[in-house]
Amino acid sequence: MLKGSVDWFFYNLLGLDPEVKIVTTLNFFVYDSLKIILLLFVMISVIGFLRTYLPQHKIKKWLSRKQAFGNVFASLFGSITPFCSCSSIPIFLSFLKAGIPLGVTFSFLITSPLINEYLVVLMLGFFGWKITSLYILSGIIIGVASGLILGMMKLEKYLEKDLITQKTGSAVMQLEYNFKIRVSLAIIEAKTIVKKLWLWIILGVGAGAFIHNYIPQEAIQSIIDRAGIFSVPMAVILGVPMYGSCAAIVPIAVALFRKGVPLGTALSFMMAIAALSLPEAMILKRAMKLRILILFFGITTLGIIFTGYLFNLLQVVVIP
């Protein structure tokens, strides 16, 4: 509905030509900015409301005792949420505010954009069930492993406290709130976070929209082809600045694969776009210190590179 409204505004009301690159770039920018801001507000409101029924200390205590289980659960939950890297951030922040350990929340943040039903359906159509199944498994493993590693580093002190500190009352008081107060607190919390993040969202999506529409696919393929044995890390490096929806990411990976780029290299490029986008980094920079951001991107990047080389080795087995 939102996409249709934005398209109608640009192409019907304003009468702009959808074939003009600057027009499609502006359309992409407006749609994704509105989508992420609205999703941020709605998801934080909903989770903030639900959290008033769950004492924070009990959630934190339960998940801290079962950290490996928490990482697996968060990764599996991420795999069924239909969000891109930026759209996953509202739930990531809400998990942190609920007292869920940082490593567990990172497992969700990594897996959610890597695997979702839209991407899986597209991959099934283009690549078949064998490659898609291996991709899903690798995405969950990357999310769980990266989350466990980041969790063991005890990085909570590098988070921006104004975005994750619980301000809705004590665990005991939460149980005494009536429905109206719970809704009011959830909306106030969502407004507060949106006010702190909206500028970073606009800057991040703006950069992603420009890169997405102005860097030709042929140039990317040419660079990857010349990288030789280093094609996988080069594909990841090229994928990080890019940004796009699953509907756009999968066809690019398919096109690269069909033009001779090895399977693992093409999938690494797609995974880097999905899980390590520049807009995501710019938004997360508001929520955490640079040290966590570097570690998060670094560990996830290594996981994607390893997966890319593994898929290249398995290519002769999984492809008929």
Which tags fit this structure?
single chain, 320 residues, mainly alpha, 17 helices, globular
**How would you characterize the largest beta sheet?**
none
Structural class: mainly alpha
Percent of residues in beta strands = under 5%
Average of per-residue pLDDT values: 79
* Rg (C-alpha, Å): 20 Å
Order of helices and strands: HHHHHHHHHHHHHHHHH
Poorly predicted ranges: 168-175
Instruction: Count the DSSP helices.
Output: 17
Q: What general outline do the C-alpha atoms trace? A: globular
Question: What helical percentage do the residues reach?
Answer: over 70%
What count of domains describes the coordinates?
1
* End-to-end distance: 40 Å
Q: Tell me how many strands there are.
A: 0
Write the layout of secondary structure elements.
Layout: H1 2-13, H2 21-51, H3 56-65, H4 67-79, H5 89-97, H6 102-114, H7 117-127, H8 129-152, H9 161-164, H10 171-174, H11 179-214, H12 217-226, H13 231-239, H14 246-258, H15 263-275, H16 278-284, H17 290-318
Helix pairs in contact: 1-2, 2-5, 2-11, 4-6, 4-8, 5-6, 6-8, 7-8, 7-14, 8-17, 11-16, 12-13, 13-15, 14-15, 15-17
